[in-house]
Amino acid sequence: xxxxxxxxxxxxxxxxxxxxxxxxxxxxxxxxxxxxxxxxxxxxxxxxxxxxxxxxxxxxxxxxxxxxxxxxxxxxxxxxxxxxxxxxxxxxxxxxxxxxxxxxxxxxxxxxxxxxxxxxxxxxxxxxxxxxxxxxxxxxxxxxxxxxxxxxxxxxxxxxxxxxxxxxxxxxxxxxxxxxxxxxxxxxxxxxxxxxxxxxxxxxxxxxxxxxxxxxxxxxxxxxxxxxxxxxxxx
Length: 235
Prior knowledge:
- This protein is of the alpha+beta class and 235 residues long.
- It has a domain at 77-217: Mitochondrial glycoprotein (Mitochondrial Matrix Protein, Chain A), CATH 3.10.280.
- 45% of the residues lie in helices and 25% in strands.
- Strands 1, 2, 3, 4, 5, 6, 7 and 8 form an eight-stranded antiparallel beta sheet that branches.
- A hairpin with a 2-residue loop joins β1 (77-78) and β2 (81-84).
- The longest helix is centred in the C-terminal third of the chain and has 31 residues, at 204-234.
- The radius of gyration is 36 Å and the shape is globular.
């Protein structure tokens, strides 16, 4: 009797095991579809030859820029001025003081123009390209005083004043008189206003610093831009 019961149990367990196995196998895809899915997923993540070529070119250009003219950390000060860089933007700001009651703010663009000048020497048929930087110099003397604003051109070796404005931040004037063109003033007045700026550190030496600074900033921004484009293409 005991042998009969054990035999019956084995038969029931075997039957149940086969039923459970068949049920599980019916819910699992065959090995062929699984293989096809894995192959498809791998193909989707591969870059096309065109995209791979773009990434290669961008990588080469970034490496070239680093090797050819590696940028350095931007200066944070120059003489009595502090320098406030604007990463990702086409300008920077400088701040300084003169005496006890004057605040000076300088806003400087990256290279925004150029001029062609004859090459020095006997052969005057060629030309050199000279880069141009615009800057705005604001002189504040405190509440209740208008601001004196100079619009200037910074060339590699000298400063040019273009216009001189008086700005009243306290009053809204619809159509203010901004003053005459600096270049049309008499020579003595031009010299006086230029001396006023030079006494505050806005001079030819500052122009040389700004050109070196913007050369470096131009490389930094270019490398950052190339890296951002590469990251977008890779995704």
